[in-house]
Amino acid sequence: MEFSSKLIQNAVNEISQLPGIGKRTALRLALHMLRQQKNQTEDLANALVLMRNNIKFCNNCHNISDFDTCEICANPKRDNSIICVVEDIRDVMAIESTSSFKGLYHVLGGKISPMDGIGPDDLNIISLIDKVKSGVVKELIFALSSTMEGDTTNFYIYKLINKFDVVTSTIARGVSVGDDLEYTDEITLGRSIINRIPFESSIKI
C-alpha cells in the first residue's frame, strides 16, 4: 500500500497493530480522524495516554481499576465468601453484564499453556491460594474457557485447594466447549453461573 504522506503511513502502521485491524481498516480510521475536528482527535489521543499511564490493577482481584482496590471489591454489598475465578479482565465484564453474580472475582491473567510458555508461576495463582487459606472464601467458581488449557488450569488450582474447606464449582456447560466467555450471550452466561455444578462432577480423578 503506497502512501503520499509519511505521517499517514506512520499512523496506519500503528493503528494496524491493534487486534483485528488490517492496513485498509487502519487507513479508513486514520482518514476518519483526519476529517474530525482537531480537538476530537486530541481527546482520543489524550484518553489513551491517560489510560495507559494511570490504569491500576486491583490489589485484591487483579481487575483493572482507577484505584488500588476496584469498585467491585470495595462494594460492601458483594459477597466476599464466593470468588469467581476467570482468565481475563474481559471475562469479568462479560459476567457483570449478566447481573447474575454478586460475589467477587479473581483474575488469573491467563491460563496454563505449555505450548505458549505459560506456566502456573506466570499467573495470579498464589494470591488465590492465599485467599482460600485465609478461611474467608467458602466457594470458588471456575469460569475459565472450556478448552484444554482452561480445564488444565482449573484442575491445577483444584489440586492445590482440595485439602481446604472450600466448595469448588464450575459454570454449567451451557457455554459451548472451546468458547471464550466474552463471546457468550448474556442469558446463556448468566444461566451457566446460576446453574453451576460441583467441580468434582466435571472431572475424572
Question: What does this protein structure show overall?
Answer:
- This protein is an alpha/beta fold.
- The chain has two domains: 6-54, Helicase, Ruva Protein, domain 3; 59-202, Dna Topoisomerase Vi A Subunit, Chain: A, domain 2.
- The chain is built from eight helices and seven strands; from the N terminus they run αααββαβαβαβαβαβ.
- The chain has helices at 6-15, 23-35, 38-54, 71-74, 89-96, 126-134, 148-161, 186-194; strands at 56-57, 64-65, 79-86, 103-107, 139-142, 167-170, 197-198.
- The strands form two sheets. It has a five-stranded mixed β-sheet. It has a two-stranded antiparallel ribbon with strand order 1-2.
- α1 (6-15) packs across α2.
- The N and C termini lie far apart (55 Å).
- 25% of the residues are buried.
Keywords:
205 residues; alpha/beta; Helicase, Ruva Protein, domain 3; 8 helices; 7 strands
Query: Widest sheet: strand order?
Result: 4-3-5-6-7
Which consecutive residue ranges, at least 5 long each, have pLDDT under 50? none
The CATH architecture of the largest domain would be 3-Layer(aba) Sandwich
What is the structural class?
A: alpha/beta
- Helix tally equals 8
For the secondary structure, the number of strands is: 7
**CATH class descriptor name of the largest domain:** Alpha Beta
Percentage of residues in DSSP E strands: 5-15%
Distance between the termini: 55 Å
- As a whole number of angstroms, the C-alpha radius of gyration is 21 Å
